[in-house]
Design a protein that fits this description.
The structure holds two protein chains of two kinds. Chain A is mainly alpha-helical. Chain A has two domains: about 270 residues, no CATH class; about 250 residues, no CATH class. Chain A has 22 helices and no strands. The radius of gyration of chain A is 24 Å and the shape is globular. The two termini of chain B are about 30 Å apart. In chain B, about 45% of the residues are buried. Classes of the chains: A mainly alpha, B alpha/beta.
């Protein structure tokens, strides 16, 4: 019981952050539905059809809704399905944080020294995560209930409970899988391996909605069993078998993870890289790169940057390869013809490609900035910032250097993914305007810098809360662009969202006012973070 | 004033960092001369690390000032660090970076690495820079931190509990390194709660308790503080003046075992001599206090906070 309490205490920021995100996601989408879907049955059917059109474009990311003309169907599609991805990310970070982060900080060793059994420790972490997930799911349910109750519509309570249950089961299965991978993989590759496995399982299921050949294998993915249920929607199914399969995956993977933890040494994975044999090295690398600011950090982060570059290039390739298939699927739906006719007359392929790729790229560049801010926060908490500041460098220089590293990394990633998109789309017979593609790709750099500026500010203010708060900021920015116009938010408020400022450069070209605003936001965030860094205590 | 600052490697005036609830550091007036090895002694939570972080400009003082090598520790922080080698109390986590990459990275921030010096330090401590930080034992992590602190031959070394995690052999090597640095013109400010270490390497010692500096003294002065252990052998049990000893001024911790009495005498021996004046004493031994005893006399609850010299 003490171990469970300690796990909840260690993960309290995650519970608060993801709970708030869940509450926000469902309540905002519920209120948004009432604001835009109309009140007559005809208006809602029209709205539902437009949502079906949208969902068809997102079919490679989210499962299509059943009845988006109802509040429950809409919130299930926009709110809960998005939360399934968000909770999977939470599961991955929590599981690897336990298996590797806590171990590296000595927490696991201290707990085992108290006589706690290894298997019991794994069980307690799984139990604590179930409690955390239940709290966050309850927050999601509360957001939905609040929105619906304010418009005096009835709620199908069993459906809501089933929706929360399947969400918890999916995230728990993801946690157990990530934990298993982290226990088995070599220590320094554990997080990357767990992330790769979960992304792979997610893509296996989501891509199987587009490529029939993958449907043979999708039973391997826990996301498949989540897709089988849409219990919140009136008349939607709750696949009991799928629910128990998810619980079974969690139990099985958790048990194997516990077994792996039982037999492996602390500090290394079940599979470990062998240490380099030979004589001790007493020499230091002489390369010039270590002497130059920015360059030395780029080199230090080279593997991460390489991974991001390769990952986004692959996604750009997949997007380009999928575009024609997706458009053909869309065109084959008679009800969508009126919505697509305008696009068909103009540039449908660049339009769809711009929508899918650039939307995905924006999310991933925001994630890149968040990952970088997580690194800055960890440097602060782990004492690396203190040792860095014991060298003759100013605090302002450190902030500027961090931003410059992110800018260069973002530029490299944007350039490679842009080139990949250009050649992959060309191979598909889709001719993109090279000038606009270059502009759109370059715009991803100031886009990432907006989040990095906000993150630098938050990391300077409170490094322990920076990642959670920046995630919430990114989520709010995304909703701002989705819902700002619907709620008639002031223009200045909408302009704080980088998603809104990014616009649609592949179709409509670059809006230089928006680029200037993005750069201004990034500079403002950086300047404020420098001021905060100058004044704050480090290491205290 | 300027001359005083120039002669001092470290000078603080009413330096205060108040964390609230009585925690922090208060009104620290301290001066450490150039080429001095200064030990900063105190139990856990007494304010040693806070002092060091203030000197390094890591944290801002609530009030007061700190000058390091004549430079303002906060305003001229970057310039201070050019001349200072720093070893933090907790070695930071560098994950999967190799030792050589960490040295190259931090050395790069100083404009480059003195390769010969690094090799010499690694040889002396038998540190393999080819291994990843994650694979290092805690002792090797500490050795790496020592290499980083000493690699640029700094004018001032600020070291927070530098020998923690080092085995006795490497501790000896570290003390030798410290003496060499001092002989080479460097000043050393080190915090510790290992008394033998301070006794071995320091010229002067400052003792801090509950965030306040209670005493600064040369080691010899501390050792000659008038706290003595005494052992007295009386001729017969009937000669042992138990009541008088219990009431004698400055006599503490009296233990009577048959005809043998042990006690601690704080300050003057007059009270003890008066108490035993009417008894037959066959043996009387007074021993000099060890630094350990001096330390305990400051920090044992219920004892006076300051000694009377």
């Amino acid at each position: 019981m003490t171990s469970v309490a300690l796990a909840l205490r260690l993960g309290r920021w995650g519970i608060v952050g993801f709970g708030l995100a869940a509450l926000f996601a469902t309540s905002v989408n519920t209120f948004a539905f009432y604001a835009v879907a109309g009140s007559t049955p005809q208006e809602r059917i029209t709205f539902g059809n437009s949502m079906l059109a949208l969902s068809s474009q997102l079919v490679a990311i989210l499962p299509p809704p059943i009845r988006p003309d109802t509040v429950a169907g809409y919130v299930e599609f926009r709110g809960f399905h998005s939360l399934a991805i968000l909770f999977a990310v939470w599961a991955m970070t929590s599981a690897t944080g336990f298996a590797r982060g806590d171990e590296e900080r000595g927490i696991v060793e201290a707990l085992l020294a108290t006589g706690t059994d290894r298997v019991a420790l794994v069980v307690s972490r799984l139990g604590a995560f179930v409690i955390a997930l239940s709290a966050a799911s309850a927050a999601a349910a509360a957001g939905f209930v609040t929105g619906v109750a304010s418009h005096r519509e009835s709620i199908h309570v069993p459906g809501l409970v089933e929706e929360c249950a399947i969400l918890v089961a999916l995230a728990l299965a993801c946690y157990a899988i990530a934990l298993l991978v982290a226990e088995v993989a070599p220590a320094r590759a554990a997080t990357a391996a767990a992330g790769t496995v979960l992304v792979g399982l997610y893509l296996l299921n989501s891509m199987s909605r587009v490529f029939d050949s993958l449907s043979t294998w999708r039973w391997l993915s826990p996301f498949r069993y989540y897709d089988l249920s849409q219990p919140l929607t009136p008349g939607g199914p709750f696949d009991v078998r799928g629910f128990f399969v998810l619980v079974g995956i969690a139990i099985f993977a958790g048990a194997v993870a516990a077994l792996a933890f039982e037999v492996r040494d602390l500090g290394s994975g079940l599979v470990a890289f062998r240490s380099r044999p030979g004589l001790a090295a007493h020499d230091v690398p002489r390369e010039a790169r270590w002497r130059y600011p920015v360059l030395r950090d780029l080199y230090r982060e080279r593997l991460g940057i390489l991974g991001w570059t390769a990952g986004l290039a692959v996604l750009a390739f997949v997007c380009a390869a999928l575009t024609k298939t997706v458009v053909q699927v869309l065109l084959s739906i008679p009800t969508l013809a009126p919505y697509l006719s305008a696009l068909v007359r103009s540039q449908i392929y660049p339009g769809v490609l711009g929508f899918t790729w650039l939307n995905l790229a924006q999310l991933l560049f925001a994630a890149l900035a968040i990952a970088q801010v997580a690194r800055w926060a960890a440097e602060d908490v782990d004492g690396r910032l203190e040792i860095t500041l014991s060298q003759p460098v100013s605090r302002a220089a450190i902030v500027v250097e961090r931003m410059a590293v992110l800018a260069v990394a973002a530029l490299v990633i944007a350039a490679v993914s842009g080139l990949t998109l250009f050649y992959a789309s060309h191979a598909q017979g889709i001719d993109l305007d090279p000038g606009r593609l270059v502009a759109a790709s370059l715009m991803l750099v100031p886009f990432a810098l907006v989040f990095a500026g906000a993150g630098a500010l938050l990391a300077a203010w409170n490094p322990r809360a920076a990642v959670g708060l920046l995630g919430a900021f990114a989520f709010a920015s995304y909703l701002d662009t989705e819902l700002g116009a619907i709620y008639r938010l002031p223009l200045w408020l909408q302009d704080l969202s980088a998603f809104k400022l990014f616009g649609t450069p592949l179709v409509t070209g670059v809006d230089w006012r928006n680029v200037t605003l993005m750069l201004a936001l990034a500079v403002a965030g950086t300047a404020t973070s420098i001021l905060l860094m100058q004044r704050r205590d480090v290491g205290a | 004033m300027l001359g005083q600052m120039a002669a001092s490697a470290i000078r603080t005036t009413r330096l205060t960092k108040d964390y609230g609830l009585g925690r922090g550091l208060f009104d620290l007036d301290l001066q450490v001369s150039a080429q001095e090895v200064f030990g900063f002694l105190g139990p856990n939570g007494s304010g040693k690390t806070t002092t060091i972080r203030l000197l390094m400009g890591m944290i801002r003082p609530t009030s007061g000032s700190a000058y390091v090598l004549g430079l303002d520790a906060m305003r001229e922080s970057a310039e201070v660090k050019r001349k200072v080698g720093y070893l933090p109390g907790d070695v930071p986590q560098f994950g999967s970076l190799r030792g050589s990459e960490i040295v190259a990275y931090l050395g790069g921030m100083r404009g480059g690495v003195d390769h010969a010096r690094v090799r010499e330090l690694c040889d002396r401590f038998d540190l393999d820079l080819g291994r990843r930080f994650r694979e290092y034992s805690s002792g090797n992590k500490q050795k790496l931190a020592i290499v980083v602190a000493f690699m640029h031959n700094p004018d001032l070394l600020i070291l927070d509990e530098p020998t923690s995690s080092l085995d006795p052999l490497n501790q000896q090597e570290f003390y030798r390194l410290l003496r060499e640095a001092r002989d080479g013109g460097a000043t050393v400010f080190l915090s510790s709660h290992v008394l033998s270490e301070v006794e071995r390497v320091c010229d002067r010692v400052g003792i801090v308790r509950d965030g306040r500096l209670v005493r600064v003294a040369h080691l010899d002065e501390l050792r000659h503080l008038r706290v003595h252990g005494v052992e007295i052998e009386f001729a017969h049990e009937s000669d042992v003046p138990k009541a008088e000893l219990g009431e004698a001024e400055g006599v503490e911790d009296v233990i009577v075992t048959g005809t043998r009495v042990t006690a601690r005498v704080r300050g003057s021996f007059e009270g003890l001599l008066n108490a035993i004046a009417g008894s037959r004493v066959v043996d009387f031994v007074s021993s000099e206090p060890s630094l350990e005893e001096i330390f305990l006399s400051y920090f044992t609850p219920g004892k006076p906070k300051a000694l009377t010299p």
